[in-house]
Amino acid sequence: MGSTSDKISGAANQVAGKAKQAAGKATGSAKLKAEGKGQEVKGKVQTATGKAKDAVKGAVDRM
User: Fold this and answer.
1) Helix (H, G, I), strand (E, B), or coil: what is residue 29?
2) 20, 22, 42, 53 — which has fewest CB within 10 A?
3) Domain count of the chain?
4) What is the spatial distance between Cα 53 and Cα 9, in angstroms, rounded to a whole number?
C-alpha cells in the first residue's frame, strides 16, 4: 500500500472501530467492544505506517 492509502484505510478502521465500541457499549456486548478496540488500534497502526512512509520518502528525496 502507498502512504496515502495506508492513512485512509487507517482512518476508516479507526472510525469503524470506535463505532463498534459504541455499539458494544450500547448493547452490553463485551465481544463487540473488544473487536472495535482491536480495529481502532489496527487503524492507528496503519495511519502511523503511512506517516512513516511519508517521512522516509521525504528523507530520501532530500538526499
Assistant:
1) coil
2) 22
3) 1
4) 14
The C-alpha atoms of residue 15 and residue 6 are separated, in whole angstroms, by 14
Q: What is the pTM of this model?
A: 0.86
Rounded Cα gap, residues 37 and 46, in angstroms: 14
What is the span of the domain harbouring residue 46?
3-61
Q: Taking the CB of residue 46, how many other CB atoms lie within 10 A of it?
A: 21
Is the CB of residue 18 less than 8 Å from the CB of residue 35? no
Residue 12 carries which side chain, given as an amino acid letter? A
